[in-house]
Task: structure prediction
Amino acid sequence: MAKLFGLFFLIASFQVMGSQLVIRVPEKSPVTLTHQQIESNFEPVTFETKLPWFEGSRSFTGFKITSLLDYLRVTDAFSLSFIALNDYAASSRVEDILQYEPIIAYEMNGKKMKVRNKGPYWLIFNLSRHPEIDNASFHSQMVWQIDEIMIHRRTHDQ
Result:
C-alpha cells in the first residue's frame, strides 16, 4: 500500500510540476508561472494552422511571447530559447517573434495539452497564415513539452 501511495504521489507531483513554466532572464531571479497564473495574466490567443506533424489543421490556444516580454518588462531581448522536458532546446530571434507572432500554446482543439500530447506548453508559429516559414528552420523552433524559457538580452557590448 505504501508503494502504491508513493507512486500516486510521484505521478501527482509530476503533473503539478509539468504545468509550470520557468522563465529565466539574466541578472534576475527565475519566474515560475503556473497554468492558472498564465491564464489569468495573459490574454488568450487562438488560431488554426496546419503543422507537419498532423493531417489537416488544428486549433491552438495560448499566449503571445510578446505579451510575456511585456509582462516581464524586458525590452532588450534579442532571442529566446525554449527548453523541453527532455532538454531539447531551440532558439527564436526576437525579430521573428515580432513578425510572426507565435504563441505558447496550452490547448489544442479546445483541450488542455498533456505531456503525452506535446504539452503542457508548445511554441506554435501560424504556418497557415505565414506559409513562407513552413520550412525545417521554423519547424525545429517549435519546441513542445516546454518547461523553461530563457530570455537572452543585449549587453552594452552588442
The chain has a mean pLDDT of 90. Strands lie at 21-24, 31-33, 45-50, 57-64, 77-84, 89-93, 103-108, 111-112, 122-124, 146-153.
